[in-house]
Amino acid sequence: MLKEKTLCKTSGEQESLRHLFWKRFRQNKLALVGAFIVISLFLVALFAPWLSPYDPGQINIKKILHDPSAKHIFGTDQLGRDVFSRMIWGSRISLLVGFVSMGLATLIGIFLGALAGFYGRWIDNLIMRFVDIMLCFPTFFLILAVIALLEPNIWNIMIIIGITGWMGVARLVRAEFLSLKERDFAVAEKALGARDFRIIFRHILPNALAPVLVAATLGVAGAILTESALSFLGIGVQPPTPSWGNILTAGKDNIQIAWWLSLYPGLAILITVLGYNLLGEGIRDAIDPRLK
Asked: Residues 243-274: pLDDT tens digits?
């Protein structure tokens, strides 16, 4: 009976915390704007085949660098392709790169951070010194160096961004584990003879995920920005696959006669990154309003 009451109380407390989180989040207007932008981008990427008025790879030499019009609301590029259609399909690349690369980075960061925080001592020293070494290298130039040695395709880009972006997550998870492993529930599980794996992933990790969620949301924006920069430099997503970065490259080559090739993808990157940043900060403030 006592155990049932405890479970009910714990469930009630969790429900109360969730309600308080959503209440704080809804009161943050900038966070709602960020959520709207992110959801809109997701829907555009999901329904790209139906929203796109033209084939993004269709070349039409009769319509090279046409101004924005009723037929081509974002104009056409140097090969006569519809820029609006390429922008819509490019949103898929942005979402894919953002979620896959940050998913990989989050998994690596959680695993190494959990080991460092739970076991401490020489394991903690070894992992954190490795983190310090990784942080000494400028991430973007490290990515450039690796891409130069590999074939520049979207999968290589996602993997490289992921394996060079886990250090912040590892630090956050380590800090949470250092605190949580001394709590009564963790000490009690250890006294009952529970295995380390169960204590780490069943009891401590779920309580350490709040700051990781914020870091991952903000990291998606950084991954999208990195992919766009690499594509702009010509070593990211390769044509004819549409990407906001390689559309910008075409804009750079025709900046004086085709302003729309620079304006629209630039605005798309700006709004997307802003949306993820607003959403991440809103989640952070809702989880712990003392961080405002």
From this structure: 888 888 888 878 888 888 888 988 999 999 99
Of 222, 191, 214, 188, residue with least CA distance to 288: 214
Residue 76: φ, ψ to 5°: -125, 165
Q: How does DSSP classify residue 71?
A: S
How far is it, in rounded angstroms, from Cα 218 to Cα 109? 15
How far apart (Å, rounded) are the C-alpha atoms in residues 81 and 90?
A: 13
3-state secondary structure of 5: helix
What domains appear along the chain, each with residue ranges and CATH number?
A: 14-57+68-291 (1.10.3720.10)
Could you give the CA distance from residue 162 to residue 283 in angstroms, rounded to a whole number?
A: 22
For residue 183, give the DSSP letter: S
What are the structure tokens assigned to 70, written together? 């009723």
Helix (H, G, I), strand (E, B) or coil at 82: strand
Report the length, in residues, of the chain: 292
- DSSP annotation of 1: -
Backbone angles phi, psi at 28, to 5 degrees: -90, 100
Task: Please state, in angstroms and as integers, the Cα–Cα distance from residue 99 to each residue in 102, 142, 186, 220, 287, following that order.
Answer: 5, 20, 32, 6, 22
Measure the CA–CA gap between 187 and 261, rounded to whole angstroms: 59
Percent of the chain at pLDDT exceeding 90: 14
Residue 67: pLDDT above 70? Answer: yes
Report the SS3 class of residue 26.
Answer: helix
| Residue-averaged pLDDT of the chain | 82
Q: In 3-state terms, what secondary structure has residue 174? A: helix
Cα–Cα distance, 242 to 90 (Å, whole number): 5
What does pTM read for this prediction? Answer: 0.82
